Amino acid sequence: MNKKIKNFQFLMPLVMLYITVDLASLVYSYKEISLSFIIMMASSIIFPLTFIISDIVTEVYGYKIAKNMIWCGILCDFVFTILTYLVSLTPSPTANQYNAYYVVLNPLLRAITAQTLGIFIGAFTNIYCMSKWKVILKGKHFWLRSIASSIIGEGFALIISVLIALGGILSIKTIMYVILYAYIYKMVFAVFVSPIGQMIAQLLKEKEGIDVYSYDKELNPFKDLIRAN
What we know:
By secondary structure, the protein is mostly helical. The protein has helices at 11-27, 43-46, 48-61, 63-88, 95-105, 108-136, 142-166, 172-208; strands at 32-35, 38-41.
């Protein structure tokens, strides 16, 4: 591991924030939001934050570190799901208390499968595009690269995760509406948050003294999983 990683002041907080948002969205995978004709899952409100965080990490620290962050998030998802599910099975003083936790936590086993597959395709596509386009555009137009990579990555993640998580639970028509409204929300979110992400990325480059470019041979989600760079 490169010793310079120890000097990064802001990398660990970013990774912690990424995993926190990821876990929070997992818990709300099956909470429905219904506003007039709009229907979507509550997890969609906060999950887009993981994409802008991964964009920032990719932009500043490079593909390899962003990749390891995503893998750590997936691992934490599984550990969190298994622990909470097992604890939810322990006896409670009342049936209402037991059922309340069981109803919320039991579906996480299915949710983690859906989210993992969605993240694997969507999140890795997102950071691949960010890295690839950074080289092509010579590090310029972060906001544009962030929006464009989110359009692709979020689309993959949303379709895969929703179909797996909600298939057989909601009707096909309802699932299509869930995907549509969530995708519209996430694209609007990406447009508004990308300029903020650009400012944060630029500030981090100055503070950390780093601006990593990742090239084709490095853009492999399975390469050097343990090594940060």
